[in-house]
Amino acid sequence: MNKTNHRFRQIHLDFHTALEVDAVGDLYDPQVFVETLKIGHVDTINIFAKCHHGYSYYPTKVGTMHPKLKFDLLGSMIESLHKADIRCPIYVSVKWDDLAGMQHPEWICVNKDGSLHMRKVLSGEWGWSTMDISSGYRDYFIAQVEEIIQIFGKEIDGWWFDICFPAPNYSPWGMAQMRKAGVNLEDDLAVRRYARQQDLIFFEQVTKICQQKVPRATIYYNGIMTPEMGEVEPYMTHLEIESLPTSGGAGWGYMHYPMIARQARSYGKEIIGMTGRFHRSWGDFGGLKTQDQLDYECGVILSAGGRICVGDQLHPSGVLDPAVYRMIGKSYARVQALEPWLYESKPTAEVALLTITQPNYASSGIGVMNHDIEGAVQLLLEAGIQFDIVDHRIDLAKYAAVFIPDGVVLPPSWVGKIGKYLAQGGKAIVSGTGALDPVRKEFQINEIPVDFLGPAPTIPSYLRPDPSMVGDSELASDYDYVFYDQTYIVKAVDGAKEYGDIRQALFNRTWEHYISHSHAPVGKSLGAPIAVCKENVLYFAAPLFSGYRNWDFWAYRAMALNLIRGFLPPALLIPIAPGWVEMTLHTQTAAQDHPERKILHVVAYHPRRSSQSIPHVDQSWSTSDLAVKVKMDGVEPKRCYLAPQKQELTYQMEGEYIKINLPPIGAHAVVVIE
């Protein structure tokens, strides 16, 4: 069931309003509010029932309506928005609730060091009291949800439950509960796992209530979009990715959404990507992006298969900033014009990156992947190789190859699953100690064509590529490229093809062995290959992917890509463009007004030099001399054009590919092949 109703242009309207603010909502005018949203071409907006401060914005008998609010703000918003055909899911803060914490301090989670999980006292730092949803707070929260249902009933379009990350509670009560459940309190992972289990019980209960009483409403829990998101996915109608790329210190950035989206979309549900209008992060009153910046971020979201949400924060007076919605409106008008090419358009994928990590249930709720996965994401995006990130819930059969990252031990179920996949003609790319049994020091998958001998004796090692690894790149086959991290010594099995040579440094740098400014120069060969391939498995003894992520050394990308491209089946698309122009391919099912067609998103990343650690993409310019080849699977195209303007593009067939020469493009362009 498609519960998001094909809405692409959403706003997340924060309204965390402290008691110290006077005249809350005094200038709110429902007609002006809606007219401002229309300027923004907005079709959906998340509006607040209860915020982090713990105050409600409707007349409540369960909670506390904000004392400075004189009317039913939530109810007025719902009524006026529905008259304008704007959907309005209801936001409720779950685990952050300062007011409940003041009224019931026994509900606040206690940190491992015995301090309360709340904002530092006598501090202006941001933060709120973190509540234990297995305490009495659970009944209080559920009563609030049931009250909202009772008051607004069928007018509820959806639920946006925020702050749902696992929060361990080391209070005397919390520890007693864990002991009763057999949890070892000294095992941090076991404690976090128990906290997640309590969350899952809570999610199941809340979802059941919402679906029974308002079955048409969407449901999303925020703060769970980590590699473990698959545990919570069954309780949600869709998935959303909060990802403010210019927010410092939160773990976001411009690589976060493209990565997390490629796991979220693998579950087959609709995804929504959330950026913000802010220059920095939430609550950045007065911060505003440029038009180019928002256009670029919208393009990134659409290209990964998402619908768009832009974060804003309502002034306590209840007045939206017209300038914000003029800027959003220009981007959303373009998105609206593109919607005929976005409906039922699904991203393609050739490679599945396996996210098999030891769950950490990090408290931030922001997804952090294995470094080899993160490096592979960057590398594949730049190369135009289409990919998803998958966990054990996903069928591998639709992918041409799977990637097993360095440092990953396969659970027993995965060993058989990958063995079967390889037997049926699938391919595997294995990095470093991926799929290595840590006790036996043998690979868990028989098809990996090497014997593992151990780590290289020095860090760094040096990589001497052979002509196959060099290809037509800038690599030199007579140069030793430093590899700053650990490499591994392996012996290829009979019949396998070896690539390159690993060499050690003269010595490891210590206080006794010291030379020059960095590390020792190259020493003798270890007689060990950089990579080995046999039949349908390509193995890298140097984990080039995490190396690329950690050091951004172009040589690692070139070595890996030259081998991967020759190993994989013919690519779905071949960019003729620099790596900062990202190309993603979708397929759109046939409809009454169009045949099945291929949709190509082209996103041009234009960062500028800055003294800040966060790159800003606040200026774009037309990029020319770009082209692309798209595999057509024997189907002759009838036409090729740019959407939405339907500008015809010239093309020619080259074997099984169509080659398209692109006109100058800005931050985002959409090419349609019919």
Protein described:
With 674 residues, the chain is α/β, with parallel strands linked by helices. The protein contains 14 helices and 31 strands. The strands form 6 sheets. An 8-stranded parallel β-sheet has the order 5-4-3-2-1-8-7-6. Strand 21 (531-534) and strand 22 (537-540) form a beta hairpin. Helix 1 packs across helix 2, helix 1 crosses helix 9 (322-338) and helix 10 (371-383) packs across helix 13. The protein is globular. The model has no long low-confidence stretch (mean pLDDT 95).
Characteristic terms for this protein:
alpha/beta; 31 strands; 25% helix; 7-stranded mixed sheet; 8-stranded parallel sheet; 674 residues; 14 helices
Topology:
Elements: E1 9-14, H1 30-39, E2 44-50, H2 73-83, E3 90-93, H3 98-103, H4 137-152, E4 158-162, H5 172-180, H6 188-213, E5 218-221, E6 239-242, H7 256-264, E7 271-276, H8 291-303, E8 306-313, H9 322-338, E9 345-347, E10 351-354, H10 371-383, E11 387-390, E12 401-404, H11 412-423, E13 427-431, E14 450-455, E15 461-464, H12 467-470, E16 481-483, E17 488-492, E18 497-499, E19 501-505, E20 522-528, E21 531-534, E22 537-540, H13 544-551, H14 554-567, E23 573-576, E24 581-588, E25 597-604, E26 626-631, E27 640-643, E28 647-648, E29 651-654, E30 657-662, E31 668-673
Parallel strand pairs: 1-2, 1-8, 2-3, 3-4, 4-5, 6-7, 7-8, 10-11, 10-12, 12-13, 13-22
Antiparallel strand pairs: 9-24, 14-17, 15-16, 15-19, 18-21, 19-20, 21-22, 23-26, 24-25, 25-31, 26-30, 27-28, 27-31, 29-30
Helix pairs in contact: 1-2, 1-9, 4-6, 8-9, 10-13, 13-14
